Amino acid sequence: MTTDQLNVFTAQTIYAEFLANLMAQAVTPYMRFAVIFKETTLGDGSAGHYFWEPTSTDTHDGTSTVKPNSLSASDPGRWKRHT
Fold this sequence. Notes:
The protein has helices at residues 3-10, 19-24, and strands at 12-18, 31-38, 48-53, 65-66, 78-81. By secondary structure, the chain is α+β, with helices and mostly antiparallel strands. The longest helix is centred in the N-terminal third of the chain and has 8 residues, at 3-10. It is globular, with a radius of gyration of 13 Å. Helices cover 17% and strands 33% of the residues. The chain has a five-stranded mixed β-sheet. It is built from two helices and five strands.
């Protein structure tokens, strides 16, 4: 089994009710995908799928780019909304 194949098996998907829950998640080397159900209320339009971009330093906008709370603005690693 190659390292790439092993990474598929160890990839972590995070399910979070609120966007704030995703932002509060600890950063791990296994993070790959996230599913958010709402930002504040069901049907508010913020539900969606996100993927982890470990090298991104894009500005947090709370919609298409989400920075975990544990990272500073200059630290790499952002959740990017899949469109």
